[in-house]
Amino acid sequence: MTTTPTAAATATTDAATTPDTHAVRRPGRRLDLTVRALQILLALAFAIPSAAPKLVGHWSAAESFDAIGWGDWLMYTVGALELAGAIALVIPILSSASAIALTGLMAGAFVTQLTVFDGEYALTPLLFAVPLVAIAWTRRRHNAELLALVLRRRA
Question: What is the Cα–Cα distance from 85 to 54, expressed in whole angstroms?
Answer without folding.
Answer: 14
